[in-house]
């Protein structure tokens, strides 16, 4: 018999970016809120403190901040015929854990989607006709437009403290920014960080080829920053320990630096760590939720937490799993194409070229998570899908995020992997390499989806999430197109040596090497209940008091890092709950 | 001859004995109210709690982990250890049986209900300036709004003669001869309000004024030339708040107000006892009062004191870290060059400190304090600096700046010789000019009880 705790107005599952945002927005309504976080509590000091944090073996290699696969993991297969196997060590992506969620260990790269990405199917229909869309591609329009979300993007960028330079303010194209971006109502709240030498070189070469380079926007502070809650960041020092690490000096945008201490002061908000939510409980008529059942790590027992509103604010994978485990939306069936929960899982495609210069010193240990120059000349809105034979786009950038010795030792092709030859190559080439990479969109397909694994279960006996995903010829053609652009750019820079890392034709998804933690879809938003389990306000169509945040709502992935859209959608949903749902609880559409 | 001498001696002894007997036995006088309030006068709701915050009663009268106001916090006075009193309305161990007159006398005469003298760790010299309205509000608050807690507090651990409370009576004849109550002298109601907060409840002079030879505050009111010209509290230097040595000269009113309200401003953060003052007292004052207090301090020093529009306004705001100035240029060049043969202290700075405090030594506004010109870094009192390097520092979160700013300690990472090199570097870098620190001094501070910096 589960323990039952006193009722709350709102229970929030997961205390990362979206849990913190929803917590703050709803706390300002005076609601009694409890946030339940699966992992441990984390503060800058002591958990993220210097110098313990900059331990590459513990955090970079052994993923000390991440979810332990032993606690929960996912199973992966590449098609419907394969048997999925559990990931026992993270590779392709890293699942966060603990207060702050993935907002603790991300790089900070923050973009908005392009307006055409939000209305992608319409964009294609109007320009080329739907017949260019492959038969198995299940892309759609988001049921909300860029213009509707613009104030929400702006709010997130101001709360999170984003550095950058606007390229388009209310339609006016501005020198130095990204001229291909959607309109912004105003500039970023902080100026961009200075570029390291690789970024300067890349920008010069790109400009000479007629492209439009700009510094990457993101959540590494370029100045001291104070946000609307009085929360603070200090200027980044380019220590080169962002991704996989917590920032020991308050310079990276995170729930810790921008929301949590202000939220924790609110008497009507409380949170528990070591609190893994097992399922959402339903009323007898199954038209609304009554609360959640969670496992109290400290007491070693299950607890029922009654609540009027349930906010699913876990990562895309756990949100999808909780919805499947709790019967929210119909499970998606890839054979019949019916059902919605689990549909349209997507990812990100990347590839890169390394440039080696004997006489250049890049000092790779000087880096930050967002550091880099970018071009968006091959983005979604700049590509003729009909002529190129694929649907997608990418930004191209030269990043320098770190020079960490275990994992960041780029060497020319044919260098021995160990021994004297490897050592002498390190001595010869460390610090003489820069890279140019692309970060491309991945469309949604009928056979790419999430469901409950039939075999593998977690320690609570719940099925693991099973992901079925593979590279599709559409993305491999995009990748090949971008490779050509990058190699031309690289050649113009006249390096002494180059090496390439791209997926080849026919490549299959490999879960071992790290790629991106940009898993999307599964709980997509849609204009009708047949299209996806969530409506345009991220409200479950069939359970009016359940809202699900995060990149699970992405109809298809965009060409950008997802956090800007995740943050924007969170404010969009919070506004709908505050202004529409609370005065009149029920379906908002 | 011998007989005469004996008689004189005997007479002197008798006189002395009579004097002592007088000091001990003549009943103490309780100062009457400074204002006769109308019958039926009652304080506004919340006024008592607000006056408690302004007087910072909670910080001293609460032990770590103890109940609010139940006393038992150790105060290390120059004469020995004193435990603060239980001021909850518990009738046996607190002040539940005290009359208003007894309560007032504690504040303005330094007298217990039984007539015994309080040790001057209780700032009754300053509370003597409290208005009768605030005293009445405080009395109502402690009697009616604070929960009684039974908590007996030990007697002070003082050697003879300091354990003789009657001796304080002599001290009070020397120090406690100013009028009770408050009359502003700044010629402006807002500045007078600031003066009241500083002189009376805020008891700034208790730390920031020097002490006379007989341990009284040298400078209790704005008229005294030594008022707030700098003092000491335990091992901390309480820097001067006026005069050419005062860093406040370089701060606009808005930045002084920000430090008081949030423990952080464009140059520095509150450390030591001041951190506790921000945490328990100043962050609860109204914006108007913080501005009044800040303006008064600037006006007292003859500096411009136009009121700012707001104290520590909410963002979004991007605040650019300052570039190195002329005095700091050479040090910045040394640190930026990171030559392999740079001095050990400078190298330790690069490896451990520069991330936040930067090679400019000027930090980043509102979050990383500047070390250039930092009074704590260059103080003759080295214990706070060494303690912060060992244990770290923490600025509490406040309503306007909720994030606690925590610096981690380096006790486990740097040895005594390294900390001495590092501290000596800091004390000479960017134009700082203070004496070096030795490894022996660091070893002593590491070994001994040192002030809590977090």
Automatic annotation (TrEMBL), chain A:
Residues 232-334 form the Glucose-methanol-choline oxidoreductase N-terminal domain. Transmembrane segments: none annotated. Keywords: FAD, Flavoprotein, Oxidoreductase. Pfam families: GMC_oxred_C, GMC_oxred_N. The keyword Heme does not apply. One of its GO terms (molecular function) is gluconate 2-dehydrogenase (acceptor) activity. Its EC number is 1.1.99.3. Residues 457-567 form the Glucose-methanol-choline oxidoreductase C-terminal domain. Belongs to the GMC oxidoreductase family. This is Gluconate 2-dehydrogenase flavoprotein. It comes from Pseudogemmobacter humi.
TrEMBL record, chain B:
Heme c 1 binds at residues 57, 60-61. Keywords: Cell membrane, Heme, Iron, Membrane, Metal-binding, Oxidoreductase, Repeat, Signal. Residues 43-146, 189-301, 340-430 form the Cytochrome c domain. One of its GO terms (molecular function) is gluconate 2-dehydrogenase (acceptor) activity. The keyword Lipoprotein does not apply. Heme c 3 binds at residues 353, 356-357. InterPro entries: Cyt_c-like_dom, Cyt_c-like_dom_sf, Cytochrome_c-type_DH, Membr-bd_ADH_cyt_c. It is an enzyme of class 1 (oxidoreductase). Heme c 2 binds at residues 204, 207-208. The keyword Signal applies. Its EC number is 1.1.99.3. It holds the Pfam family Cytochrom_C. SUPFAM superfamilies: Cytochrome c (SSF46626). Binds 3 heme c groups covalently per subunit. One of its GO terms (cellular component) is plasma membrane. It is found in: Cell membrane. Its cofactor is heme c. This is Gluconate 2-dehydrogenase cytochrome c subunit. It comes from Pseudogemmobacter humi.
């Amino acid at each position: 018999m589960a323990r039952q705790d006193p009722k709350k107005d709102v229970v929030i599952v997961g205390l990362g970016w979206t849990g913190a945002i929803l917590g703050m927005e709803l706390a300002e309504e005076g609601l009694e809120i409890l946030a339940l976080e699966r992992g441990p509590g984390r503060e800058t000091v002591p958990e993220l403190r210097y110098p313990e944090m900059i331990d590459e073996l513990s955090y970079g290699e052994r993923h000390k901040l991440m979810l332990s696969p032993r606690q929960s993991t996912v199973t992966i297969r590449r098609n419907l015929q394969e048997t999925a196997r559990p990931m026992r060590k993270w590779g392709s992506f890293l699942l966060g854990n603990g207060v702050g969620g993935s907002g603790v260990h991300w790089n900070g790269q923050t973009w908005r989607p392009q307006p055409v990405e939000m209305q992608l199917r319409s964009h294609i229909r109007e320009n080329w006709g739907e017949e260019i869309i492959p038969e198995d591609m299940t892309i759609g329009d988001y049921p909300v437009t860029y213009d509707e979300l613009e104030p929400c993007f702006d709010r997130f960028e101001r709360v999170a403290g984003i550095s950058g330079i606007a390229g388009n303010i209310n339609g006016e194209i501005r020198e130095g920014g990204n001229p291909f971006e959607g309109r912004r109502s105003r500039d970023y709240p902080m100026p961009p960080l200075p570029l390291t030498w690789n970024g300067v070189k890349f920008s010069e070469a790109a400009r000479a080829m007629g492209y439009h380079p700009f510094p990457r926007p993101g959540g590494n502070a370029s100045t001291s920053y104070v946000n609307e809650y009085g929360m603070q960041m200090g200027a980044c020092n380019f220590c080169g320990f962002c991704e996989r690490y917590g920032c020991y000096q308050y310079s990276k945008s995170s729930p810790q630096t921008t929301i949590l201490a202000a939220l924790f002061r609110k008497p009507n908000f409380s949170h528990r760590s070591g609190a893994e939510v097992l399922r959402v409980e339903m009323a007898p008529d199954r038209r609304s939720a009554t609360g959640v059942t969670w496992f109290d790590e400290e007491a070693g027992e299950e607890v029922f937490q009654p609540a009027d509103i349930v906010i699913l604010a876990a990562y895309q994978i756990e949100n999808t799993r909780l919805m499947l485990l709790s019967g929210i939306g119909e499970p998606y069936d890839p054979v019949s194409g019916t059902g919605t929960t689990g549909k349209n899982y997507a990812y990100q495609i990347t590839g890169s070229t390394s440039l080696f210069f004997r006489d250049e010193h890049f000092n790779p240990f000087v880096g930050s998570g967002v550091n880099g120059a970018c071009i968006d000349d091959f983005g979604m809105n700049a590509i003729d899908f009909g002529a190129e034979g694929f649907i997608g786009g990418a930004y191209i950038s030269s990043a320098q995020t770190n020079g960490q010795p275990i994992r960041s030792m780029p060497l020319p092709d044919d260098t021995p992997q160990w021994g004297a030859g490897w050592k002498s190559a390190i001595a010869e080439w460390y610090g003489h390499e820069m890279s140019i990479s692309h970060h491309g969109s991945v469309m949604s397909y009928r056979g790419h989806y999430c469901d409950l694994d039939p075999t593998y279960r977690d320690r609570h006996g719940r099925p693991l999430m099973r992901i079925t995903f593979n590279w599709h010829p559409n993305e491999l053609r995009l990748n090949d197109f971008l490779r050509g652009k990058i190699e031309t750019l690289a050649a113009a820079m006249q390096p002494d040596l180059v090496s390439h890392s791209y997926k080849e034709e026919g490549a299959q998804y490999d879960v071992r090497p790290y790629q991106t933690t940009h898993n999307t879809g599964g709980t997509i938003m849609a204009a009708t209940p047949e299209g996806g389990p969530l409506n345009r306000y991220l409200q479950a169509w069939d359970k009016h008091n359940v809202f699900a945040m995060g990149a699970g709502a992405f109809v298809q992935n965009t060409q950008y890092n997802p956090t800007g859209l995740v943050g924007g959608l969170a404010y969009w949903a919070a506004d709908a709950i505050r202004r529409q749902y609370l005065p009149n609880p029920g379906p908002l559409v | 001859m011998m007989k005469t001498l004996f008689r004189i001696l005997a007479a002197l002894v008798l006189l002395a004995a009579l004097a002592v007997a007088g000091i001990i036995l003549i009943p103490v006088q309780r100062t009457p109210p400074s204002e006769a309030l109308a019958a039926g006068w009652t304080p506004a709701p919340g006024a008592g709690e607000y006056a408690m915050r302004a007087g910072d009663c909670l910080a001293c009268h609460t032990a770590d982990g103890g109940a609010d106001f139940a006393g038992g916090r150790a105060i290390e006075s120059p004469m020995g250890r004193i435990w603060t009193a239980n001021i909850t309305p518990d009738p046996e161990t607190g002040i539940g049986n005290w009359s208003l007159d007894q309560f007032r006398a504690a504040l303005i005469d330094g007298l217990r209900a039984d007539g015994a003298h309080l040790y001057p760790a209780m700032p009754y010299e300053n509370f003597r300036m409290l208005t009768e309205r605030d005293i009445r509000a405080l009395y109502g608050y402690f009697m009616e709004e604070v929960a009684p807690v039974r908590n007996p507090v030990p007697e002070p651990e003082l050697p003879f003669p300091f354990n003789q409370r009657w001796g304080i009576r002599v001290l009070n004849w020397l120090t406690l001869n100013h009028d009770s109550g408050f009359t502003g002298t700044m010629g402006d109601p807002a500045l007078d309000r600031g003066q009241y907060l500083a002189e009376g409840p805020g008891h700034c002079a208790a730390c920031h004024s020097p002490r006379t030879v007989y341990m009284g505050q040298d400078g209790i009111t704005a008229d005294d030339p030594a008022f707030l010209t700098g003092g000491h509290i335990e091992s901390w230097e309480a820097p001067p708040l006026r005069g050419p040595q005062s860093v406040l000269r370089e701060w606009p009113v808005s930045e002084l107000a920000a430090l008081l309200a949030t423990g952080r401003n464009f140059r520095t953060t509150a450390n030591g006892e001041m951190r506790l003052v921000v945490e328990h007292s100043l962050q609860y004052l109204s914006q108007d009062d913080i501005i009044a207090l800040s303006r008064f301090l600037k006006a007292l020093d003859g500096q411009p004191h136009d009121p700012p529009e707001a104290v520590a306004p909410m963002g979004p705001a991007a605040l650019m870290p300052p570039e190195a100035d002329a005095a700091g240029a050479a040090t910045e060049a040394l640190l930026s060059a990171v030559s392999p043969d740079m001095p050990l202290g400078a190298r330790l700075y690069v490896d451990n400190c520069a991330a936040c405090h930067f090679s400019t030594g000027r930090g980043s506004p509102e979050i990383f304090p500047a070390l250039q010109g930092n009074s704590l870094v260059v103080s003759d009192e080295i214990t706070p600096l060494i303690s912060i390097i060992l244990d770290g520092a923490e600025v509490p979160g406040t309503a306007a700046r909720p994030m606690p700013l925590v610096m981690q300690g380096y006790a486990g990472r740097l040895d005594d010789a390294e900390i001495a090199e590092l501290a000596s570097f800091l004390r000479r870098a960017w134009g700082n000019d203070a004496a070096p620190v030795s490894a022996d001094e660091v070893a002593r501070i590491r070994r001994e009880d040192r002030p809590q910096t977090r």
